[in-house]
Amino acid sequence: MNNNAQIERHTVAVLVDNEPGVLARVIGLFSGRGYNIESLTVSAVSEDESMSRITIVTSGTPMIIEQIKAQLDRLVPVHEVHDLTAEGAHIEREIALVKVVAGGAERRESLRIADIFKAAVADTTRESFVFSLTGKPEKLDAFVELMRGLGKTEVARSGVVGIARGAKAL
Amino acid sequence: MAREPMNGAQVVIKALIDQGVDVVFGYPGGAVLPIYDALFKQNQLRHILVRQEGGAVHAAEGYARSTGKVGVVLVTSGPGATNAVTGLTDALMDSIPIVCLTGQVPTHLIGNDAFQECDTTGITRPCTKHNYLVKDKNRLAQTLHEAFYIARSGRPGPVVVDLPKDIQFAECPYVGPSNVVHKTYRPQIKGDRKAIEQAVEMIAKAKRPVIYGGGGIINSGPAAAKLFSEFVRMTGAPTTLTLMGLGALPATDERYLGMLGMHGTYEANMAMHDCDLMLCVGARFDDRVTGRLDAFSPGSKKIHIDIDRTSINKNVAVDLGIVGDVAHVLEDMIKVWKAGQKQVDKKAVAAWWKKVDEWRARDCLKFKTDKKIIKPQYAIQRLYELTRDRETYITTEVGQHQMWAAQHYRFEKPNRWMTSGGLGTMGYGLPAAVGVQIAHPDALVVDIAGEASIMMNIQEIATAVQYRLPVKIFIINNEYMGMVRQWQELLHGGRYSESYSAALPDFVKLAEAFGAVGLRATKPSEVDDVIGEMIAVNRPVIVDIAVDQKENCFPMIPSGAAHNEMLFGPDDEAGKPVSEEGMVLV
Ligand SMILES: Cc1ncc(C[n+]2csc(CCOP(=O)(O)OP(=O)(O)O)c2C)c(N)n1
Ligand SMILES: [Mg+2]
Fold first, then answer.
1. Is-contact B157 B97, C-beta < 8 A?
2. Measured in Å, how far apart are chain A's first and last C-alpha atoms?
């Protein structure tokens, strides 16, 4: 529609019935309508495992973001849709596991950087480390970027999870 | 209260009966044999055997659209389910309530590429409102009731319930519909009071108001059409309807401007373009309606009433959105209007009508009649004149004939017009007519068809013959895929690539071969007689009307053009070439 409108990045939390096919419905909605997914995570979250929480990081114009939320809300197994970005202060976290294969000075440098980032060493061999790091996605980006310069790397990232600050719980 | 134990197939039948279903459109096969066996043993539910599963879904659509009830389909696994996909997509696009039961291989074989297995829920996920695979026999009854609730509530749509064969055989507990409450799905019915008051304020202030109504009014029920007409008359605003909305306001009402959009009237499209306030009721700003978006009604404030929140601000940004059922929202609007003793700006609206009447005077639907050749518009006009005083239901196929039918057949009531709008499915009209006739055995049901479209589901004449359904297939035979030919003429230099209907059957003999009646008209003077005979014969009839092969459907907004850039006829095309952006649009 309005091509000049600003592209915004939003983190959306969706509470859904924990039943087969729900994730396919959500992903199908995004691919079928051409919406972006930057990351998507899902896990059962209710005590009885009957409900799952999907966290989606997406981007688009304000009109598209509104559409995405309305479309998600329209899916039958969806209980609630919360735009964490629009609803106020919230916390976002992601976890990365980063394998670095290097020796000599590079190997020592990777340890030093890990120390600065407060990344934990999750596994080590003589020629490799696996670092585990939790934080905001930008922090993970920076860490991975630095490690790539030091040797062969392999990266696994969880995608973002988010939750609103304060005493109000969903 | 102890009940006889029931197997899954019997639970299916019981659930359908408890949902008030009286007819099922279907086709048997291995994976639904237990349900067919249960059908055999009862006599409350009628089964209509179609000749292809796609026909079953369209028939159920015709039934649903003409009654306001949920249409029910029963098909087997694999090819039965995949044949139903077009109909399901059609029902999704046009918001038609359908419950489609599909057989599935037994649960332990799912995923093994078993005979006639397909991933039905996977295939139908994007073309249904919702779907289910029943793997737990304890949830069968509840799932069936939920399916009906979802199909008919909110914005209606198709729901698939996939039923593995072992579940159909297993002993299953039964719960009735009243014991089933859906966990999450609660469509908003009442509109926001503040927004309604604001809408009334805006309408009362308008100087050049337009009301634009759509299929949502029909779906909301006959009461909604009454309220809509009442509101139109209270405000006196010029009113136009979408293809799906025809009949929501009587076509003979003086405030009615005709259909809008690509093949809508000049007055409707100009009024949309020049209005200062647009009230959209149960329509969705579809691209056939809006034309070029950035030139769409540039100077107006827009109010949009829709039960589906995703329809609001999807294509066109509006100033005020009201989520709710059309009937409820209109009822409240009328109350607020009356309580506030609201009036439109009479002087301004009178001046606006003067302008609108100038556009009307252009008489954009006129066509040159001919003594020798039957003009397609003439055939439809005569059909209208000779059937308007009867209880008549019209279905159509897709193409020029469909647009001419929308332009020249005038509807006084809702639920009388069944056409494939959103998906534009050739082959819809005949099976839909079968469904309508089942629901209204004594009515006159006419499928206005094209000679190409009718070939897509021609087999359903056998269904009509079997059940003695006197449906009339009124073929506007131009020996071309006329709508394709028209676009090729307009956009592709008249290179009629593959759009000639070669090797057509003799439709009169074809009718006879099926056990129906065949009639033909080749001259204008024969049209009335043939229509008279068609009505008089109480059997399925194919009427082959040989019409002008080169006639095009006007007026027309070429793709990529705005509402005020209409083409009026053959002489008009040369002046206004279709833009490059327009070329890529459908
Ligand atoms: C299933 C399907 N295939 C293709 C089309 C594209 N299409 C739209 S109109 C049309 C021609 C229809 O010809 P006919 O039924 O003779 O109607 P006419 O336009 O001549 O009135 C075609 C091929 C379609 N709408 N549906
Ligand atoms: Mg044709």
1. yes
2. 34
How many CB atoms are located within 10 Å of the residue A157 CB? 16
Contacts of B133 in chain A (CB under 8 A): 20-21
- Asked if A86 and A104 count as a contact pair (C-beta separation under 8 A), the reply is no
φ and ψ of A120, to 5 deg: -95, 150
Q: Distance between CA B224 and CA B326 in Å, rounded?
A: 6
Please tell me whether residue A129 adopts helix, strand or coil conformation.
strand
Q: Which domains does chain A have, with CATH numbers?
A: 8-87 (3.30.70.260), 91-162 (3.30.70.1150)
For residue B314, give the 3-state DSSP assignment: coil
| Cα-to-centroid distance, B74 and ligand 2 (Å) | 32
**Cα A55 from Cα A11, distance rounded (Å):** 7
Whose CA is closest to B402, among B478, B336, B331? Answer: B478
Which residues neighbour B283 within 8 Å (Cβ) at sequence distance 6 or greater? B212, B213, B214, B215, B216, B242, B244, B245, B289, B306
Out of A32, A67, A78, the one facing B314 most closely (by C-beta) is A67
Low-confidence ranges of chain B (pLDDT < 70): 1-2, 573-577
Q: How many CB pairs under 8 A join A and B?
A: 40
Partner-chain contact A76 B150, CB within 8 Å: yes
Residue A1 has pLDDT above 50, yes or no: no
State how far the Cα of B452 lies from the Cα of B307, in Å rounded to an integer.
36
Q: Where are the beta strands (DSSP E) in B292-421?
A: 301-306, 320-323, 392-396, 417-418
DSSP E strand boundaries for B325-460: 392-396, 417-418, 444-450
Q: Which residue among B42, B115, B368, B391 is the active-site one?
A: B115
Question: Any alpha helices (H) in chain A, and if so which ranges?
Answer: 22-32, 62-74, 84-87, 104-117, 137-148
Q: How many other CB atoms sit within 10 Å of the CB of residue B399?
A: 25
Whole-number Å distance between alpha carbons of B382 and B405: 11
The confidence score (pLDDT) of residue B175 equals 96
Mean pLDDT of A67-88: 97
Burial of B380 (0-12, 13-18, 19+ CB in 10 A): buried
The CA distance from B559 to B292, in Å, is: 7
Distance CA A139, CA B526 (A): 81
Q: Would you state the structure tokens that stand for residue B46, as one six-digit string?
A: 């009628």
Residue B387 to residues A12, B384, B401, B444, B540, Cα–Cα distance (Å): 55, 5, 17, 8, 16
- Alpha helix (H) residue ranges in B419-563: 429-439, 461-466, 482-491, 507-514, 524-536
Burial class (CB in 10 A: 0-12, 13-18, 19+), B362: middle
ipTM score assigned to the predicted complex: 0.93
CB of B161 shorter than 6 A to ligand 1: no
Q: Packing angle between helix B346-361 and helix B266-274, nearest 10 degrees?
A: 140
Main-chain dihedrals φ then ψ at residue B103, nearest 5 degrees:
-75, 155
Q: What is the mean pLDDT of residues A86-100?
A: 97
Global pTM reads 0.96
Burial of B452 (0-12, 13-18, 19+ CB in 10 A): buried
Closest CA to B246 of B223, B220, B217: B217
With beta carbons less than 8 A apart as the criterion, state whether B86 and B457 touch.
no
Residue B533: per-residue pLDDT: 98
In single-letter form, the type of residue at position B441 comes to P
Pairing label, strands A39-44, A51-60? antiparallel
Question: Given an 8 Å threshold on Cβ–Cβ distance, is A77 in contact with B184?
Answer: yes
Chain A residues in contact with B323 (beta carbon < 8 A):
none
Encode pLDDT of B447-500 as tens digits: 999 999 999 999 999 999 999 999 999 999 999 999 999 999 999 999 999 999
Cβ–Cβ gap B308/A73 under 8 Å: no
Residue length of chain A: 170
